[in-house]
Specification:
heterodimer; A: 445 residues; alpha/beta; Urease, subunit C, domain 1; 2 domains; eight-stranded mixed beta sheet; disordered C terminus; B: 441 residues; TIM Barrel; 3 domains; six-stranded mixed beta sheet; 18 strands; 21% strand; disordered N terminus
Chain lengths: 445, 441
């Protein structure tokens, strides 16, 4: 059964001819830039350089001097999911984005048009411990199983500050306001939760010890809220922590260290420049905005030099969108860190590719153009850090998922079909005007 | 003997003037289970089909209906309908609060909602068989449109409760054919930021935790029952009891993404499941066939909302869905996805029109009839009792003067548990008791 299944999975890749993108300005991000070619075979980058052998039967794409770079990786977004926040509880770690991914979301296609090939889809920031997150590739047209990034390490969302504590102000008549209502309460939620997770882990250890001794035992109740927290304690689940202020960033790092785990990525982290050394010492990455702030009090003390300062202090920094629209021009966001902070082109592009991949633990697969990595490529008509650059083609696993020319030429046919259906359905409704309504009609929901 | 028969008839649900046996003679008989008889006789006695065939000897005590030119079908089954009962409405308003022990005095602060362990929006133990109101006018409307059986469910909450297969006539205790028929799940949220679950992801996690808890509850209970040392007596949990006594679970799924999502979820929950909704089923018939899950297809096809803004642009995707949703049954039939229909808010008298759209989209008439009869019965494990015209089956029949889904076809008689009803002519306002002859109650 298994070999057959594997064969079936491999068939489309075997059948696809190799692709050679020639005459391109190649930006590898990790191995320099050159004018040359990229060979794609079986969904992977097989070779790249100034001169690449064109295998027989290969499909050749002449880039005509256009720019080829690794697919952009957005380490924090909220697209392609049917729900984002389970905000009713202070701890909603039993929930997961995987349960609600929606591969039909048009935001996936739009992300492709902005050169994004991979994104982390995060739970929202309504509560201190949010849900499990997921990583997807923008394989537009595939189903939910088809868009998931197989092998990406599991993650979870934490959040601090105003979003979390102002839950007290959202109280409705008859409802007890949700705890916590202050920053110190937020810290307490983490301590209480991880203390409970330790006790839960111990409960299972006791059970397994009894089994080993051959004593009869009933397994403990599986707790879907605490299971992911045990994985965090054991370093098997990466923590993405939403934060703004320097003091609460330090709190988060210290609580994690006390419980023996690490924060993988600090999100937003607008005051990160104040505590960059401490962040670097902890080993956390940071993902921030280039110049988006002042949308709430805790986001006032921000500076556009944040990304550059953190990077210079040794923090692994990436840029993220947090938004379906911003997601479509992360390349220009990267350009801003050159203006503010004087980073180089490669350092800027690394913040939307390889650095994000490292933060998500998928840098062996994506984030740069190197032999053996997934063939996730974006072709820009100009240098991707230019305001005028437009995405021309996007390949994921060596398959073409976006082509600007194809998109443009398909529009007329789509519009024609749309008009036909509109007319047809209008005529149908005229034929049966005002259907009678039955008494007490009700539809299960 | 005759006296005895009369007494028996009085004891049952049938009105006193109902004969013990009725023969529909020389009718076209669509048995569904076997070949259609072009000229057959169906003999009904004591609420069941005593004989159906081309050479049936009509006993002396049977009333004979000359059914030349008429067609006899098995009674139609609405595979999912939601009860509107005062009890359910109260339960729904109470929400999470009804499952906690605190007194609900207005002055007391509302209890905090801790999550799945509080069992919010959970009425899994309630039974439609207990809640149903035999005098519900919708039952009569449905019967007049040829429905003899409805699978009814309590309608409130995420775990809404146990369904019941009910016949649409008689006293309440006679109506219930099977109970519990299944656990009706919805993805209703609290629609509030303050009450769990407030999101789809919360609902999914909650359902998953409840099923894990139910399995653990069983384990712990069994260990305690055999006096295993060190095992604490589990707290009685009616929400888990309700889940454990459900023979199957109904999961909502309309779009292609939802159909695949819920099919995978059903596998994960390790329980027998039925998907319902399926407006975009035509997009994924093969994937559904592989799961082997039965699907209930709503006959409320997606259409432009009545109050839609005429100037609002409509996407191609939406238009395609409206165009192609009625091709779902045909796609299911050719991929061998077991399916049945439910009215889903379509008025019973508009059902034929709704089915006609599926026929226009490629579904054969035989497959449509089967989906509304034997197909539905089989999904609920009742194929030996309902859904076809065979000896020994419950005598639920529809007698028409033409093809079941024909525009001009009229339903002449409906038999429920062997009791004959005559629907009023379609133009007349809804029937008063005087309009019904055979089965006046």
């Amino acid at each position: 059964m298994k070999p057959l299944y594997l064969l079936a999975a491999a068939l489309p890749l075997v059948a696809a001819p190799p692709i050679v993108i020639q005459n391109a300005n190649v930006i590898t991000v990790t191995k320099g830039n050159f004018r040359g070619a990229v060979l794609v075979r079986d969904g992977k980058i097989a070779a790249l350089g100034e001169k690449v052998m064109v295998p027989p039967g290969a499909q050749v794409i002449d880039a005509g001097g256009q720019y080829v770079m690794p697919g952009i990786i957005d380490p924090h977004s909220h697209i392609a999911a049917d729900s984002i926040n389970e905000g009713a509880l202070a701890v909603s770690s039993m929930t997961g984005i995987e349960d609600v991914l929606n591969s039909d979301s048009i935001a996936i296609y739009r992300a492709l048009a902005g050169g994004v090939t991979t994104a982390a889809i995060l739970h929202g920031s309504a509560n201190p411990i949010g849900g499990k997150c997921d990583v997807i590739k923008m394989r537009w047209g595939k189903d939910v199983a088809g868009i998931r990034f197989a092998g990406a390490p599991p993650t979870i969302k934490f959040a601090l500050g105003e979003n979390v504590k102002r839950s007290g102000a959202l109280s409705l008549p008859g409802l007890t306001p949700r705890y916590p209502g202050s920053r110190m309460g937020v810290e307490d939620v983490f301590r209480e939760s991880f203390t409970a997770a330790r006790a839960y882990r111990r409960e299972w250890e006791v059970y397994r010890e009894r089994l080993k001794r051959g004593e009869p035992a009933v397994p403990p109740r599986r707790d879907l809220k605490l299971e992911p927290l045990v994985e965090v304690l054991e370093g098997k689940r990466l923590v993405h922590a939403h934060c703004y202020r320097a003091d609460e960033i330090l709190m988060m790092l210290r609580v994690a260290e006390e419980y023996g785990f690490r924060i993988r990525v600090l999100i937003h982290v607008l005051e990160g420049y104040k505590v960059a050394k401490e962040i670097a010492a902890h080993g956390a990455g940071a993902t921030t905005f280039s110049d988006w702030w002042a949308y709430k009090v805790e986001a006032f003390d921000a500076i556009p030099y944040n990304a550059a300062i953190m990077a210079k202090k040794g923090v692994l920094v990436s840029l993220n969108s947090d938004d379906a629209e911003l997601m479509r021009h992360l390349n220009t966001e990267a350009a801003k860190v050159m203006k503010y902070g004087g980073l180089g082109e490669t350092e800027a592009l690394a913040m939307i590719t390889i650095n994000a991949a490292r933060q998500l633990g998928i840098d062996q697969r994506v984030g740069s153009l190197e032999p053996g990595k997934d063939a996730d490529l974006v072709m820009f008509d100009r240098h991707p850090l230019s305001n005028y650059a437009k995405v021309q083609k996007v390949l994921i696993d060596g398959q073409l998922y976006f082509d600007r020319d194809n998109d443009a030429s398909a529009r007329a046919a789509r519009e024609k079909r749309r008009q036909e259906l509109l007319e047809k359905q209008k005529a149908q409704q005229k034929k049966s005007p005002g259907e009678r309504k039955g008494p007490a009609e009700r539809r299960p929901q | 003997m005759r006296y005895l028969i009369c007494v028996l008839a009085l004891c049952g649900a049938a009105p006193a003037d109902t004969p013990t046996a009725i023969a529909l003679r020389d009718a076209r008989v669509v048995t569904v289970s076997g070949p259609t008889l072009e000229r057959g006789t169906v003999l009904v006695r004591d609420g069941v089909v005593e004989a159906a065939g081309e050479n049936v000897t009509i006993p002396a005590d049977a009333w004979v209906i000359d059914a030349r030119g008429l067609t006899v079908y098995p009674g139609l089954i609405d595979a999912l309908s939601v009860l509107e009962s005062p009890e359910a409405a109260v339960a729904s308003a109470g929400g999470a609060r009804t499952v906690t022990q605190r007194p609900a005095t207005p002055a007391a602060p509302a209890p905090t909602n801790r999550g799945p362990e509080d069992r919010p929006l959970n009425h899994s133990w309630t039974r439609a068989a207990d809640l149903l109101n035999a005098a519900d006018r919708r039952f009569e409307d449905a019967r007049n449109a040829g429905f003899t059986t409805v699978v009814v469910y309590p309608g409130a909450g995420i775990f809404a409760g146990q369904g019941a297969v009910v016949n649409l006539a008689g006293e309440k205790r006679r109506m219930v054919v099977a109970s519990p028929a299944g656990q009706y799940l919805t993805v209703a949220t609290s629609r509030s930021f303050g009450v769990f679950p407030g999101s789809l992801m919360g609902v999914m996690a909650y359902i998953r935790q409840v099923y894990l808890d139910a399995a653990h509850y069983q384990l712990q209970r069994a260990a305690w029952d055999r006096n295993q040392p060190g095992v604490a007596r589990p707290d009685y949990d009616r929400a888990l009891e309700g889940v454990l006594e459900s023979p199957r679970v109904l999961l909502p799924a309309g779009s292609a993404v939802e159909l695949k999502r819920m099919a995978a979820f059903a596998r994960e929950l390790q329980t027998k499941a039925i998907l319902y909704g399926a407006e975009a089923g035509y997009q994924v018939p093969e994937a559904l066939a592989q799961t082997g899950l039965p699907v209930l297809v709503s006959l409320k096809w997606p259409e432009k909302p009545r109050d839609a803004d005429p100037d609002a642009p409509v996407s191609l995707r939406t238009l395609e869905l409206r165009e192609r949703a009625p091709s779902t049954p045909a796609a299911f039939a050719s991929a061998r996805v077991p399916f049945a229909f439910y009215t889903g808010g379509t008025a019973p008298r508009d059902v034929a029109k709704a089915v006609k759209r599926a026929l226009d989209a490629g579904l054969s008439e035989a497959a449509a009839v089967r989906a509304l009869t034997l197909g539905a019965a089989a999904i609920y494990g009742l194929e030996a009792r309902l859904g076809s015209i065979d000896k020994g089956k419950i005598a639920n029949l529809v007698v028409t003067d033409g093809p079941l889904f024909g525009e001009k076809t009229r339903i002449r008689y409906v038999f429920v548990d062997g009791v004959k009803f005559e629907p009023p002519p379609p133009e007349a306002p809804s029937a008063g008791p005087g309009a019904v002859t055979g089965g006046a109650r």
